[in-house]
Amino acid sequence: MLRTPLATELRLVGSRSYGCPTYLLFLLFLFQLVALERQVFDFLGYQWAPILANFLHIIMVILGLFGTIQYRPRYIVVYAIWTAIWVTWNIFIICFYLEVGGLSKDSELLTFNISQHQSWWSENGPGCVRKETPMIGIKGLDSHSYVSVIGCALEYRYIEVMHSALQILVALVGFVYACYVVSVFTEEEDSFDFIGGFDPFPLYHVNEKPSNLLFKQTYLPA
Questions:
Q1: CA angle centred on 57, ends 53 and 63, rounded to 5°
Q2: Which of 28, 99, 113, 121 has the fewest C-beta atoms lying within 10 Å of its C-beta?
Q3: Which stretches are transmembrane (predicted)?
């Protein structure tokens, strides 16, 4: 069977357009799981600013999933732009916990100054043991006052830094692959237009002969 250039072009475009969205969908599902994991621990620590940022990130990942499933490059472009914002936010979180540029990990910046909560990992990190003592001067209450946390195998700020570093890594991977998928979708649309997919007069147009010429007979002399 002979393969024409048109058939070869369609085969190559079809294989790329099938494989690229599949890989991107897998990556986006993985990124969504990572974002949900971080959202859970930020909720436990009442970190309102990260909770809001995580919520927006989850929405943007869903938008990227929709754009990939529906072959909508514009939605994937929006997701790619968001990844740049997401990387910037996570760099700020790293600077916050490492106290870079005058930032303090003990400040209430991430809780919008409405509570004194810290990261959930500050009291529940690996190996951490909390020491509590009853509140003095308040009768009839069973509440306890947290005094100190000892025995932590890893300080909580480094756990938060590793979380943000992981988010930056997956965001960069998502940005690069999203841009690649958008380029493939765009090339596919251009190729389809080139072969006459959107042209009312196809490129390979066959001129039909009048019916009287088709049935015309030639008489040879005897």
A1: 150
A2: 113
A3: 20-36, 48-69, 76-100, 165-185
